Amino acid sequence: MDRFRMIFQYFQSNSESVMNGICGLLALASVKMYTCFDFSCPCLPWYNMAYGLGIMFVPPIALFLCGLILNRQSLVMLEEWRRPQGHRKKDLAVIRYMCSSIMQRAMVAPVIWIVVTLLDGKCLICAFSSSVDPKKFVGFANASLEQVQQLLAKVPCKEDELMRNNTSRKAVSRYLRCWSQALGWSILLLFIAAAFLARWLRPCFNQATLLQARHWSNYIDIEQKIFEETCCEHSRLFAHKCILHFFESMWQEIKLQSFSLPREEEGVEREEDLLRGIRHQDQVNKLLKMWYYEKPPLDVGQVTQRHLLGRERSPPPWADSPGTRSKFPQHTDV
Amino acid sequence: MDKFRMIFQFLQSNQESFMNGICGIMALASAQMYSAFDFNCPCLPRYNLVYGLGILLVPPFILFLLGFVLNNNISMLAEEWRRPQGQRGKDRAVLRYMFCSMAQRAMIAPVVWVSVTLLDGKCITCAFCTSVPVEILGNTSHPSLSQGEMKQVLARIPCKEIYDGQELIANEVAIRYLRCISQALGWCFVLLMTTLAFLVRALRPCFTQAAFLKSRYWSHYIDIERKLFDETCAEHARSFAKVCIQQFFEGMSTDLAAARCHPPRKAPADAGEATEKLLGITDQGTMNMALKSWHRCKPPLHLHPPALPSGNGWAGEGQPPVHPPLPRRETAAYYSRV
Description:
- Chain B: InterPro entries: CALHM (IPR029569).
- Chain B: It is found in: Membrane.
- The complex is a heterodimer of chains A (about 325) and B (about 350).
- By secondary structure, chain A is mainly alpha-helical.
- Chain A is about 70% helix and about 0% strand.
- Chain A contains 13 helices and no strands.
- The model of chain A is unreliable at about 265-270 and about 310-334 (pLDDT under 50).
- Chain B contains 12 helices and no strands.
- Chain B is elongated.
């Protein structure tokens, strides 16, 4: 149990690891989406290329944008970039660092999609089956140009009646898949080599600047989180005071209407405190009605003052004479 | 068990992450509902379009409304919108912020449904099978049929078992064509939605950051204030009920003592807490009468002022009366004890 809580807290506390977690989830989602997706090549001359290349490139763009959207730091970076300078200078190195780390994480899922697509081969076979040289394949060498186009376009569809037992179809298919897989593995190797070099060579260049940029980007992130938490805490206290003020002003009004109520004594029961002088059904109904029809103003300055001076039950300023007493308590700006 | 409680607490503590959780669950439910749904194209000329487009568009609308219904903040938004102005001004920006954030979350499940439907292809195949370009895909040497007959034949494309137009246009060719169009539409839709979401998120810090911070603060404030008010009212109701019931029992015991024409038994000084808690009702008959009275004639929602403690320093006054005056059943205001 403790271990679980520790892991949870660790993931929460460190925003970098949260982002890594999201990055990993997107990558898994990308693979899962590809396997669930029912690829069906149209097997028509111009449609093949559009479909094949579309499936290869459109989902990665969507995944890239998803990676940017789900990453909280992209918002932090944009805010830092667009904020007015004010009293705090802007450090472009920090913004660049944040931008590059966001882009790197967002690129993982699209690259995985492209690599999986190429290693599977269906997309490339669909897109480029009409573009192979028919003379290399026995079955297609002797047909007319138009016929060849039609036949080649049908290569990705194994179940088509024209292609069912065509050995040349299998040859074209194998040829294209070979190219596709070679391309896939090359891209994978290229990316991993690039990532390796970037990590290895980074300490050789500008390590001090990098440390500074990383520190300050972390700082900006934490500062924003703490600001949001502080605002939440503040709004809770504000609401608490506002509601207490509202109940007290109801209590004051009730006391004014019933002149003989004795002053509050020390050691009164706790229940009476909680009742705050509201002891009738009508009073409760009036309180609830007033809460709806006339919410108290967002101003707790008076309450704080009164609390600072001590809890004496002095009548509020508007209750000096019955003539000036209004139906509902007004708030006075001090 | 503890693990679930912790996860639950985490989700609950942070209102935003709770709403995100519900959002995610609805998206998964939407995908699951689609896969569980048994799609059955009617394979009749006009019914196909209605059925296909209906399955594509009606469930997302229902899911959108459900997204609003499941969102706790909808009643908060409605309350804030309809409340009379009173002493507190209304900020339209806050209302807009609350509505936008709810609408964004409610949009996710419908978008997932539409995407999954388009990527699967069955709906579009069913809806538009009568619009397949026969002159491009079909057999041009086939004798031409009338418009109505052609539509009848094409309408059966999704139903492979009863399709009888193989010479006109091959079933697989038509289905592949339609599915390709459907999937292209699906991916374009996904890209469009993702781009829109990205723009909405990215452009906000560039234009309206200060206004956004203000709206977010005050919308949280309204939510917290409502919850605290409910808690305070609940606390008050509890105390009210406790005092009301206490006074009821005291009243019963006094009434019965008066009916028997002797003063109520004063609890001896060293009787202890248990005797105090008996509230003067110490025998079966009295208790039964108290229970009957509680059922037949509940006390009014009107508490008497608190009893003053003895020795309160009122010099020169006599002792307060030995037994408290009979409780009035009518809704009088206060009565003086002096």
